[in-house]
Structure formats: structure tokens, C-alpha cells
Amino acid sequence: MARLFDNLRTGAWVSRERARLVGLAVLATSLFGLLYILATATGLNDYSGRPIGSDFSNIYAAGTYVLEGEPAKPFDPAAQHSREQAIFGAVTPFYGWHYPPFFLGLAALLATMPYLLALAVWQGVTLVLYLLAIRAVLPIPPPLAGKNGPPSWLSFPFGGGIEKLWLLLALAYPAVFINLGHGHNGFLTAALFAAALLTLDSRPILSGVLIGCLAYKPQFGLLIPLVLLVTGRWRVFIAAGVTVALMALAVTAAFGVEVWRAFLASGEFTRTVVLEQGGTGWHKIQSVFSWARMWGAGLPLAYAAQAATTVAVATALVVIWRGRSRFAEKAAALLIGSILATPYSLDYDLMLIAPAIAFLAADAARHGPAPWQKTLLAALWLVPLIARSFAQFTHIPLGVPVLLLSFVWLLDRAFRTDAPDIIESQTA
């Protein structure tokens, strides 16, 4: 038992070769699953009758309404479902449109293409953005750098050349294939968030613009303004606010005021049916609120538990961002805290954890891993693989506890680390 504890503390069990083998196994299995879905599909639907890329169907359906000059229709659940059935068949399940009007323009652009092409473009472009963001976080030397020296712990020989372990692990990260299977926006969210953090001090206006663009997923922007305010990053804060205001004006000019009324009215359906009644499925939602509801808590208790978590995370983030933690730890804390702070975060939203892992891995490469760091990184990487299925069959959530443990570890680091509050160079 003492040896097991020591291995977990030091992370000795997380070897480069083991990471490579696990990454290859997950990547191969996930690719096989995606190929199976495509091979057994009929038209636009998979073997079970759902649209290929399931949740992307609501983006595409909403886009068709915008192209027809009816941008408020996607916010009407009955109308949205009717359009989905018209495109994908009468037995198509309902995939609700819960985004702010900011997302309608992109939906319309995608709807100008045939469905499968639009899905491929959407996932392909945003996947590349995600990979570029992860690459920018990591201090990886150029291919010929260090040729005569020891190899980087982030690289390994593969396929006859020098491939990067980061690329394997970034592609094999289990949330990637959850995102691909759902045709979702996790790649874009992760890329925007990571890029905003990387440019926070070097290019504050750009960082603010990127943060403003995250307004299409407002549940993840709750804590960002707080961090900007308590650290005095006023230019980023103002740029983000101006970006959101300009996007709102553009949306209003393009679609009219009615689209905002429709959006606000649809919030009742989203809150009651999707969140409070668990229409999505408690096992899919990775939040304290969902955890409480899964275990039978009433709405007041579930909301109280989520509110207490959100306040605690917000308070801890103030401590972390005003404390002595290195920037990589602060960035990871904001990414993880942004998921913990919202009651509505699904397992494909765990894509936000990928840049958090990258920041912490880069920090470990520079300074050496701290106690428990490698084990926590492995747990964060693995948890999307089993979080949904394990909770579905056992009613025991794994995602939120792993996120909470990691966040507490980062808070503890704020009291132990002695480093200036600067953004270290993230590229070679």
C-alpha cells in the first residue's frame, strides 16, 4: 500500500511508453467506432436512426431557418423539432437549439452546404484550431532542435520519423471523440479559451476579442470577468465587453430585436426541461447540480450545492490568480473552474480540460512535476473516457470529483509555489 501511494504521489506509473500505448489504443478504438458509425449509416442517419453527428443537426436545422429569413424559429422547440424531422426523418429525436443569437450566423453559413460536408467542415476546421492551440501552449522544440541531446519527454520516435507525443495525446484525448460523435463545438471553445489565455498579457486586445467570442457559450464565461477584474487586466476586460456589444449590435441589425425575445423566452424550456428535469440525462451532465439531482436531491438542494460550489471556486480563483502560482497553474485553474462553476456542462464540454492538461504538462516539463501532478494529469485525461458510461450504470459520477480534486490541488499550489505572475513563453 505504501508503494502504491508513493507511485501515485510521484507519478512514476505515468511513463512515456505507457502514455503512448494508452493513447494509441484509445485513438484506434475511437477511430474504429467512428468508422463503424459511418459504415452502418443510412443516408444522413446512423444505425440507430439518429442524425450522423447528432447534435450538429440542431445547428444545421437552425441555419436553414436563418437562410429562409426566420432566425427566431430555432428558439421554438416545436418548430426546431419539425425542421429536424423534415431533414432527417419523422423519427428523429429532438435536438434543441440553446445557443444565444450570436451563433446563428455561423449556423447559416454551415447550412449553405450539404449536411455531411457541413459537418466535415465544422469538425475539421475546429479540430485544427484546437490542435494549433494545444501546440502553442506546449514548449516543444523544432524537429531538429536538440538533435545531439536527450530527446524531449514530450516526443517519441514513431512511424519512421520524429512525431510528437503531444499530438497523439491531443488527438486521442477521449473528449475529442465524444465531440466528434456529437458534431459539437468543444474544439472551438477549447481553442478560443486557450488562445485567450496565451495572449492575455502579450496581446490584451486580441485576448479580449477571443474572450468576447466565447459569448456563444455563456455558461463558461462566468468567472473570466472576475479574474480579469481582480488582476487589473482592464484592457482585456474592456475589449471583451466591446466585442460582445458589437456582436449583439450586428446580430440585432441582421436578425432584428425579435430574435432576442425568442432567445430569452426559450430560456424557460432550457432551464426546466433540459437542466432541472435532466432531459439530456444526468449521466451526461458534468456538474455538481447534476450530481445532486442524480442522487435524488430536490431542486432547492441541488441549486444550493451548485451555488456553494460556484462561490467556493470563484473565491479560490481570486486566491490563485492573486497568489504566487505560476501562470500555467492559474490558466489550468480558470479552465477547470469554469466547468465546475456552471450547472450545465456536458461530457463533450470536457474539451476545455485539454488545454488545462497542456498548460500543466508544459509547466512540468519546465520545472519538473510537483507531487501528485502526473497522476492528476493522467486522471484528467482519462476521465472523459468513462465518466458518462460509469455514471449511467452505477449512478456514481467520476468527472466532477476528478475536477474538484484537481482544482483543490491547484489551490494548494497557490500557497506553495513561489513564482512571478507572468506568462512564460509558450513556444520554443
TrEMBL record:
<keyword id="KW-0812">Transmembrane</keyword>
<feature type="transmembrane region" description="Helical">
    <location>
        <begin position="205"/>
        <end position="229"/>
    </location>
</feature>
<keyword id="KW-0808">Transferase</keyword>
<feature type="transmembrane region" description="Helical">
    <location>
        <begin position="301"/>
        <end position="321"/>
    </location>
</feature>
<keyword id="KW-1003">Cell membrane</keyword>
<dbReference type="GO" id="GO:0016758">
    <property type="term" value="F:hexosyltransferase activity"/>
</dbReference>
<feature type="transmembrane region" description="Helical">
    <location>
        <begin position="390"/>
        <end position="411"/>
    </location>
</feature>
<feature type="transmembrane region" description="Helical">
    <location>
        <begin position="236"/>
        <end position="257"/>
    </location>
</feature>
<feature type="transmembrane region" description="Helical">
    <location>
        <begin position="21"/>
        <end position="39"/>
    </location>
</feature>
<feature type="transmembrane region" description="Helical">
    <location>
        <begin position="333"/>
        <end position="362"/>
    </location>
</feature>
<dbReference type="Pfam" id="PF09594">
    <property type="entry name" value="GT87"/>
</dbReference>
<keyword id="KW-1133">Transmembrane helix</keyword>
<feature type="transmembrane region" description="Helical">
    <location>
        <begin position="102"/>
        <end position="132"/>
    </location>
</feature>
<dbReference type="GO" id="GO:0005886">
    <property type="term" value="C:plasma membrane"/>
</dbReference>
<keyword id="KW-0472">Membrane</keyword>
<dbReference type="InterPro" id="IPR018584">
    <property type="entry name" value="GT87"/>
</dbReference>
<protein>
    <submittedName>
        <fullName>DUF2029 domain-containing protein</fullName>
    </submittedName>
</protein>
<comment type="similarity">
    <text>Belongs to the glycosyltransferase 87 family.</text>
</comment>
